[in-house]
């Protein structure tokens, strides 16, 4: 009817094509296929079939796309290389990767005399890389290169694949091979490599790649610059990133919202609040609408500088603007409440967002709350929150267990700490160095030497790799227990492991030797400090002086005191009290005279 009314200005097939297009745009795929079947009665063109096939693939209508393709093969028009390439993209780019089907499609093309082109091969290579068979993709590409059936897209797919696997050196090898095969890298080739290099921390090489782009007349795009800025911010070089950002702006480069978000995130994490505030204003001025990611960064910056009230105001602002916060946003605010000791307010805030926004705490939120409760010694509340977390289906990890154990250990509630430690072991969760360190420190401050020995056996059984913090804790614990033999064994083990003892370790050892009146050992440790250019503290000198006074060697005690003063160290209240000095250590002349008499 429409064709007759148009007076021949449109053919029946053109009208069918328009109807099919309308159905596809309205996501009425079954109607589109029914119209296609009707159109076949008058004869459809391959172009219309390919259009419909592409639309179905784009909308991930796999069943309909396969049905259409099978119909084209059985009753025509026969699929061409474009048809096969479209179906190949469905197998390699779709939600479900179907690599076997993609390979079979290549074989089918050869059997049917349809020669795959570079686009078909490039799509297949992308699938290989997506399935993490990047080495196979590179070998396949090298074979294609010899046959002369590849293009820049093929190389970009493999370069991207290696970068995703973190093998940037292999990506550069492909990049070099691309140029040897006579293909000029495009902006995508360079951008992929810049991103890969920056993610691996190879920022200088990434910058050199941008420089090479410019020399070859290729203007870096937003992706290239965003990758470099992100890499710089990630490694803490935010000021350098900000400098590049501003220089690009001065040169007339138009930043997009992603670039603003990247640099804004870095400034919020590391720089002054004023700089972050200026960037925020610039984003608004350039008509960029901040998203939840930007608002969360601003809230973090305010909380980092202890502006909790202002952070809450920004939180309300994002709600007014219709931007829904996520659990990360809420956790940052809860963490700040907890750090300020405002646990009650943290719970009120959580209840509010849960009821009004449906945002429930996640495992990280629970960690923040529990850490805050441990800080103010609310052990009963810790168990209540812990139980609620389990009830909600969250499985505590080693970090959470360690946080609670540390809280109990600092409060000297060692029974609770060990109760949780054994629960942790029973559930198959491996304790960390932080877990053992917390328990050891607790035992050191409590009369728990048997427990200490049992814990040491557990640690040896776990074949735990000792770090500096744990070694220091063990040495301090042995020294407090006057077990200097064991302390020295750990000291030697620490050195043999390549861990350098610091002033605190030496002070513990000197204090331990002084406590058992083994002043030769204390003096030896003092000499070791001098050899390593480690400056003794007032606590170090105090421990040595007390040791000499204990054995009745007042002359040596006075000499040590004079050495301390000559080093520019002022006695603290403890030493002043022991030696009968004024608060300013003003009676040192007397001790100087005593030192001269002693010599």
UniProtKB/TrEMBL annotation:
Keywords: Repeat, Transit peptide. PPR repeats lie at residues 45-79, 80-116, 151-185, 186-220, 221-255, 256-290, 291-325, 362-396, 397-431, 467-501, 502-536, 537-571. It holds the Pfam family PPR_2. Signal peptide: none annotated. Transmembrane segments: none annotated. This is Pentatricopeptide repeat-containing protein. The lineage of its organism: Eukaryota, Viridiplantae, Streptophyta, Embryophyta, Tracheophyta.
């Amino acid at each position: 009817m429409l064709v007759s009314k148009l007076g021949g200005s449109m053919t029946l097939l053109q009208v069918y094509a328009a109807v099919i297009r309308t159905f596809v745009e309205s996501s009425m795929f079954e109607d589109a296929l029914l119209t296609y079947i009707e159109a076949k009665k008058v004869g459809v063109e391959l172009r219309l079939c390919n259009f419909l096939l592409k639309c179905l693939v784009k909308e991930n209508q796999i069943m309909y796309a396969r049905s259409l393709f099978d119909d084209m093969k059985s009753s025509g028009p026969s699929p061409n290389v474009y048809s096969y390439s479209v179906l190949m993209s469905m197998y390699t780019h779709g939600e479900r990767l179907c690599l076997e089907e993609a390979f079979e499609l290549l074989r089918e093309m050869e059997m049917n005399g349809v020669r795959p082109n570079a686009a078909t091969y490039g799509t297949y290579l992308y699938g290989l890389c997506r399935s993490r068979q990047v080495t196979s993709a590179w070998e396949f590409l090298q074979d294609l290169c010899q046959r002369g059936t590849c293009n820049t897209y093929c190389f970009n797919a493999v370069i991207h694949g290696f970068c995703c696997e973190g093998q940037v050196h292999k990506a550069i090898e492909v990049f070099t091979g691309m140029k040897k095969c006579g293909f000029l890298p495009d902006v995508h080739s360079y951008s992929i490599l810049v991103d890969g290099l920056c993610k691996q921390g190879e920022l200088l090489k990434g910058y050199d790649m941008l420089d090479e782009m410019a020399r070859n007349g290729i203007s870096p795009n937003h992706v290239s610059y965003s990758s470099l800025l992100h890499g710089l911010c990630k490694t803490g070089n935010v000021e350098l990133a900000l400098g590049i950002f501003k220089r690009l702006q001065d040169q007339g480069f138009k930043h997009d919202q992603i670039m603003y978000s990247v640099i804004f995130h870095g400034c919020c994490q590391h720089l002054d609040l004023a700089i972050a505030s200026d960037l925020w204003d610039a984003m608004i001025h350039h008509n960029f609408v901040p998203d939840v990611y930007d608002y969360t960064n601003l809230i973090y910056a305010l909380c980092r500088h202890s502006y909790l009230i202002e952070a809450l105001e920004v939180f309300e602002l994002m709600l007014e603007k219709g931007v829904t916060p996520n659990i990360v946003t809420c956790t940052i605010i809860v963490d700040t409440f907890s750090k300020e000791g405002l646990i009650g307010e943290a719970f009120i805030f959580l209840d509010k967002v849960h009821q009004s926004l449906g945002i429930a705490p996640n495992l990280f939120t629970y960690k923040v709350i529990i850490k805050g409760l441990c800080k103010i010694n609310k052990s009963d509340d810790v168990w209540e929150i812990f139980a609620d977390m389990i009830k909600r289906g969250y499985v505590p990890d080693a970090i959470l267990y360690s946080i609670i154990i540390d809280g109990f250990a600092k409060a000297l509630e060692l029974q609770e700490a060990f109760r949780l430690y054994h629960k942790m072991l029973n559930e198959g969760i491996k304790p960390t160095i932080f877990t053992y360190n917390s328990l050891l420190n607790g035992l050191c401050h409590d009369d728990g030497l048997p427990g200490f020995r049992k814990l040491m056996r557990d640690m040896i059984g776990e074949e735990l790799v000792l770090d500096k913090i744990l070694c220091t804790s063990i040495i301090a614990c042995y020294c407090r227990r006057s077990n200097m033999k064991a302390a020295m064994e750990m000291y030697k083990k620490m050195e043999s492991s390549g861990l350098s003892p610091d002033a605190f370790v030496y002070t513990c050892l000197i204090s331990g030797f002084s406590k058992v009146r083994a002043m030769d050992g204390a003096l030896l440790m003092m000499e070791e400090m001098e050899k390593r250019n480690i400056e003794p503290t007032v606590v170090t000198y105090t421990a040595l002086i007390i040791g000499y006074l204990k054995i009745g060697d007042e002359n040596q005690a006075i000499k040590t005191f004079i050495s301390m003063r000559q080093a520019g160290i002022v006695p603290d209240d403890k030493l002043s009290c022991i030696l009968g000095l004024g608060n300013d250590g003003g009676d040192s002349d007397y001790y100087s005279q005593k030192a001269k008499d002693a010599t």
